[in-house]
From TrEMBL:
Gene3D superfamilies: Ribonuclease H-like superfamily/Ribonuclease H. The lineage of its organism: Bacteria, Pseudomonadati, Pseudomonadota, Alphaproteobacteria, Hyphomicrobiales. Coiled coil: none annotated. InterPro entries: RNaseH-like_sf, RNaseH_sf, Tc1-like_DDE_dom, Transpos_IS630-like. It comes from Methylobacterium durans. This is IS630 family transposase. Residues 9-133 form the Tc1-like transposase DDE domain. One of its GO terms (molecular function) is nucleic acid binding.
Length: 160
């Protein structure tokens, strides 16, 4: 997560300057959204590796201990590994991966939520610290989890 630079409006003839850190500390969001309820599960970590992807899948299994979980899954290299396979085997059929075509983020509901997150939280913003950014991210997802119909609207689902 870092400031997103995008088109902005300013006084005529003056370029809008957005401050950015030289070598920013980074945090990565790994998340999932329940298509039916709009509830989200988001982990913020210093890295986005196979280990963190396996952690996200494990978190989903813990949050939904008796349900079958369907995950829309792109072809990222972090999605294939022994750690991820171990979680899948341990789920004993309760975790079903739905592989999406290469380069098709519009088919993955979480991508629409990430876009909204960037609009509301990181668009042309410089946070005083990485902790302030992580807190803003946490607040965004907490706010939407209190009103899951808002998430369903963003991702094009209808709450049940």
């Amino acid at each position: 997560m870092a400031p997103d630079l995008a088109a902005d409006v300013g006084p005529k003839g003056q370029q809008v300057m957005i401050p950015t850190p030289m070598q920013p500390a980074r945090r990565y969001g790994l998340g999932a959204v329940d298509w039916h309820s709009g509830q989200t599960v988001v982990l913020t970590r210093p890295h986005k590796r196979r280990r963190e992807v396996a952690e996200l899948l494990g978190t989903l299994l813990t949050k939904h201990p008796t349900e079958t979980i369907y995950v829309a899954w792109d072809n990222a290299s972090t999605h294939e590994d022994d750690e991820v396979e171990a979680v899948l085997r341990g789920a004993a059929g309760r975790l079903v991966l739905l592989y999406l075509p290469t380069y098709s983020p519009w088919l993955n509901p979480i991508e629409m939520l990430w876009r909204q997150f960037r609009r509301e939280v990181t668009h042309c913003e410089l946070f005083a610290s990485i902790d302030a950014l992580v807190e803003a991210a946490r607040a965004f997802f907490e706010r939407y989890n209190r009103k899951p119909g808002g998430v369903c609207s963003i991702i094009g689902a209808h709450p049940t």
